[in-house]
Structure formats: structure tokens, C-alpha cells
């Protein structure tokens, strides 16, 4: 579904991403991990279109999107959450999801009335499903800014789902969560995979990554140092060296 070939990004003299290659298969949960400064967030921002690559290809369903505008990537089926929560805090929970459903990528569909009040799978129904999935149905009319931190994280996920992605990019979704909230996130990621979603997970919480991913790519200083199943990555000396400072 997504293939990155020879991806490079320079910021002045800094090689933030230095020739990365990986591919994500339809229906899998693919982890992208590495120490701070390893290039994870830069890679995600390149995939989403916030940065343009210095060189390399980003193929999404066979199409090179490296120079495609960010909003057009949404229409192709790329949606994401952010490491630092980015909600419309002065809008209600429902309105935040309405914004995702009413994005320009979806406006051309059918027509306003048919899209919103039509038959099965209409926009209102999809918003209701996102609210139920995120456990926020009881807070639909509350301002997003009034939600607790964990609830705001769940709303970001629900908003990304409302955009109807083919590939969902989760950028450190467990950051700031407590143990119970992380366990609930684990369950939601598994449910999304069962529903057929393809997920790119960028995360520092190793227990979560090892529990939910099918394969993992490990970055360090902008380069890929390992790729494989969670068990293979855990046993790789280069990974232990990057995280622990020793290959032993």
C-alpha cells in the first residue's frame, strides 16, 4: 500500500532522513521506531506532505505522491493523528468530526443532502460510529477543549477515522497516556486492524509497539538500521545498541 524508496530530507547541512526504504502491506500494523532524533517524525511529515523530500519516492497504492499537495493526499486516503494534539478546541466534539467529514476531499461526493441524510453509510452515521468507537458519544456536544487529555487523544483518532483513510498514520498516540488508557489504545488498534485498516504506528512506548505491530522498521540518525517482526527487531544487536548504547 505504501512504499518509501531512497527517501532523503536535508535541513541545511543536517540529513534528517538519509536514504530510507520500507514498504507497508495492506491490512498490517507497521511500526516505525527509534531514539529521539532518529528521523521518525520527519519521515511521517514527508509521507503526509508537510515536507517535500530532497530526493526519493513515496508510492501510495502505486502512485508517486512525493510532490502531491497535502490536501490531495487526504483525498487519496492518507489521514493522521499528531504527536502534539491539534483539535479545534472551540468547537464541540461532534463539530470536530463534522470538519473531517466535510473536508474538501469529500465535498464532491453525491451532493450535500444525499451525503448527510442519505441511506446506509451517510456522513451522520459515520460520525456516530466514530463517536461510539472512541467512547465519546456522551460528550458529543461538549467543547473539545473541555475534554481530559486522554479523551482529546481519542478524539484525534476519531477525527482521523472520520476522514475515511486507507492508511492511518498514528504519531505517538500513547504520549501522555496512563496505563489504562494505553491498554484501551492497544484494544482500539487491534479492532481497527480487524476492520481492515492499514496502520503506520510511530511510538516510543515499546510494550504497545511490540504487542500490536506485525512488522517494525527501526531508525537511528536518519537511517534504517533494522526491519522485521517484533521478535526479530528485539533480538537485533544494532537495535539494542541504538537504544541502550551497547551491542551486548
Automatic annotation (TrEMBL):
InterPro entries: AAA+_ATPase, ABC_AA/LPS_Transport, ABC_transporter-like_ATP-bd, ABC_transporter-like_CS, BCA_ABC_TP_C, P-loop_NTPase. CDD domains: ABC_Mj1267_LivG_branched. The keyword ATP-binding applies. It comes from Vineibacter terrae. Keywords: ATP-binding, Nucleotide-binding, Transport. SMART domains: AAA. PANTHER family: CONSERVED COMPONENT OF ABC TRANSPORTER FOR NATURAL AMINO ACIDS (PTHR45772:SF9), CONSERVED COMPONENT OF ABC TRANSPORTER FOR NATURAL AMINO ACIDS-RELATED (PTHR45772). It comes from the Bacteria. GO terms for molecular function: ATP binding; ATP hydrolysis activity. It holds the Pfam family BCA_ABC_TP_C. Belongs to the ABC transporter superfamily. SUPFAM superfamilies: P-loop containing nucleoside triphosphate hydrolases. Residues 2-246 form the ABC transporter domain. This is ABC transporter ATP-binding protein. One of its GO terms (cellular component) is plasma membrane.
